[in-house]
Amino acid sequence: MSNTALCVQLQQALTEVAGANAPALKRDRVGFVEALQSPANLNGVRRVALPSNGKRRQVELIYLQRGVESGVQAAQPTAFCDASDEPEPRSMLVEVEHWVHRKLRFTEEELRRYCWADDPVFVANAIMAELNALTVAVNKVLLTLQAASLGAFFDGSLLKSISWLDAQNQPQYFEESKLLEEYSLIGGSGQPLVIGAGDLAHYTRMTRKGCCTSAGIDLGQAGEYSFFYDRFVNGAFASGEHYLVLAPGAVQLVTWNANVGDYARQEGRNESGTLVDPFTGLRFDLDQVWDPCTKRYHLTIALNYGLVVLPPDAFALGDELAGVNYTLHFVKA
Q1: Which residue has the higher pLDDT, 3 or 73?
Q2: Please, which pLDDT band fits residue 65 given cuts at 50, 70 and 90?
Q3: Helix or strand (DSSP H, E) at 90
Q4: Nearest 5°: phi and psi at 29?
Q5: Residue 268 CB-density burial (10 A; 0-12 exposed, 13-18 middle, 19+ buried)
Q6: C-beta separation of 10 from 271 below 8 A
Q7: What angle do helix axes 9-17 and 122-147 make, rounded to 10 degrees?
Q8: Rounded to whole angstroms, how far apart are CA atoms 114 and 121?
Q9: Residue 91: how many CA atoms within 13 Å on its side-chain side?
Q10: Which residue of 34, 48, 154, 302 has the fewest CB atoms within a 10 Å radius of its CB?
């Protein structure tokens, strides 16, 4: 755990084994989580501190709709005390209600060997081997939540087709321009985050629109979008090859850790703290409990998380952007 639980070397060892090619340490690329955790998505976003010290959290999103053109009068005002339109703040409550967890157990000798050995990797390897399954599970749930909360295009449609490659599997550059035009029409700010696999990945490689890190984070340095490889996107839909486009900051991953503040503690052989996945930056709760009956330590790795998307009424009826939430859905033509 970071700084307190098990022994102080655990987080260091997790970082050291990250990227190893052993089968147990193989990591799947979870592009949606990586996009949400990317600097591009977090830049300028202020994560409000919610009630902590182990209490269950909710996120209340308070927002105002922008004015609509129908409310504008093309005449000189003749009175100044007859205003009838009052901006009404709206709110949406988001429960951080989704969970994943994994339980492991170790003998005291295994933990002792880890904490005092010159090459402390045993428990770190075991935990790293489990983090892949946990992050994939989180990624799939988040994709399902996002699929149920996709926004509208400028013309009101919810889905558009795109052909990244032609019949000879050559890149079709105009398709990228079409995507960027749709993004511009809804007023998207910043470089869009484009998530998917298949033809999109081929197009990105062939046109050198992005580069890939060992952690699976694809940063579009040459093009006008940031690409994140995620083969799990298609699983959130019935069939076909799908691609998601997000405006930076429009969708946020919200997590909550129980083992912080007064709840990060050590009591005899029992400890509670947190652990950061070096690949995704997700911070998991990690609890160690000693069972005197079996003489084993029981470790539980857990994460409480949710997804915050702009509400469906972020723009008022009558606004040309009604239904827009800065997430777009494309499918392979």
Answers
A1: 73
A2: low
A3: strand 90-95
A4: -85, 125
A5: exposed
A6: no
A7: 70
A8: 6
A9: 5
A10: 48
Instruction: Copy the structure tokens of residue 86.
Output: 């009052």
Tokens of 240: 């076909």
pLDDT digits (tens, 9 = 90+) for 243-263: 999 999 899 898 888 888 778
Q: Within its chain, how far is the Cα of 91 from the centroid?
A: 22
Q: Which residue has the higher pLDDT, 265 or 160?
A: 160
Quote the CA–CA distance of 77 and 59 in Å, as a whole number. 41
Alpha-carbon dihedral angle through residues 149, 155, 156, 162, given to the nearest 10 degrees: -50
From CA 152, how far away is CA 333, in angstroms rounded?
A: 19
Distance CA 22, CA 134 (A): 18
Instruction: Round to whole Å and give the CA distance between 110 and 120.
Output: 11
- Rg of the chain over all Cα atoms, to the nearest angstrom: 24
Separation between Cα atoms, residue 2 and residue 12, nearest integer Å: 9
Phi-psi region of 318 (alpha: psi -120 to 50; beta: other; left: phi over 0): left
